[in-house]
Design goal:
The chain contains 10 helices and 7 strands. By secondary structure, it is of the alpha/beta class. Strand 4, helix 4 and strand 5 form a beta-alpha-beta unit.
Length: 279
Amino acid sequence: MNTLSKNRPVPRHALITGASQGLGRAFADECAARGMDLFLVALPDSGLPQVAQCIMSEWEVRVDWLEVDLTREDAVDRLLSALDTNGFSVDLLVNNAGIGSIGSFAESPLQGHEATMQLNMLALARLTHRLIPELLRRESACILNVSSLGAIFPMPNLPIYSATKSFVLTFTLALRDELRGLVRVGALCPNTIRNDRATEDYVDRLPLVCRRACLYPSEIARSGIDDLLRGRAVIVPGLINKMLKVIGPFVPRWLVAGTIRHLWGGFSEKAKDAVAARA
């Protein structure tokens, strides 16, 4: 733990990526409820202006926003220009934007794998690199990178996603050491998030222990911000998930992979069926 973290002021200006829905929206609400002004980033046509208006009405905080695809070469330049135009000084960066498709590696399109790697790793690294000089000027500076419990385990049917989240976790821990005493840095590693109806319906049919390991976005966002401000390096929401993190390295990988494949293989088939139905 960073020994200086407890004595530092709480951040007041949060930049949140992937903020139009799911965990990103939950982060926006959580930060707004704590009195932070927000700068929200999400894809075009994702409903971000409506989200911003709703948060401003509910929490009476300042909310600026930008719709941009973070995988574009000019995305970070556009974002920094918008921050400058709006006079928004970031002291909390929440790198939440990410994607991942369910399915076997060989049977899934290579373009999808490349898009996952580009957003989950390259875009995150680009934005973080460009904002560090700004953050170093803020006594309350924090970076929260959203990884996954899947960063710790092999994930059949999510091989590229889990690999990118492993990158996020190791990158975050290295960055934390480099910025120790200057910026609070943490990696958030949730289990499956009850983000939408399809996921929630599937999770509700899993064994009890699995259901209790899968939390709602609001629970994960609250835990993420709380533990970041406490100076935690690796933030794992939920008691069951904390236990999985501890025992995971001692369980044979073939057993871990087999269990994951058994539990989530059905969801993989369901996802493929949904895509076929839309085609």
